[in-house]
Design brief:
0% helix, seven-stranded mixed beta sheet, single chain, 57% strand, 11 strands, globular, four-stranded antiparallel beta sheet, mainly beta
Length: 116
């Protein structure tokens, strides 16, 4: 089993920045990629960014150039640096771990609200 705990959400003004953290524990060697998803009210959950164990990254078009995903292997932690935030970035952000067995692991979610 893998446990994922997010932190760092909150309220920020448009144009501001926020950094989310996701700490992984448990059988972390079963994960080959980690990422961030988000779900806004009335919308489907969507991929925001992911990073593989090899360091390859992928971003949703809507966040390219504004968000950066990174990882600190020694801390078993993945970060999402979010800059130039827009109101449409408002959502619950979920940390996700992709297991080599095909199992998906999810954090509890953290709310990000972009509003003046």
């Amino acid at each position: 089993q893998v446990q994922l705990v997010e932190s760092g959400g909150g309220l920020v003004q448009p144009g501001g920045s926020l950094t989310l953290s996701c700490a992984a524990s448990g059988n972390i060697f079963s994960i080959y990629a980690m990422g961030w998803y988000r779900q806004a009210p009335g919308k489907q959950r969507e991929l925001v960014a992911l990073i593989t164990n090899g360091g390859n990254t992928n971003y949703a078009n809507s966040v390219k150039g504004r968000f950066t995903i990174s990882r600190a292997n020694a801390k078993n932690t993945v970060y999402l640096q979010m800059n130039s935030l827009k109101s449409e970035d408002t959502a619950v952000y979920y940390c996700h771990g992709a297991g080599v067995s095909g199992h998906d692991y999810w954090g509890q979610g953290t709310q990000v609200t972009v509003s003046s």
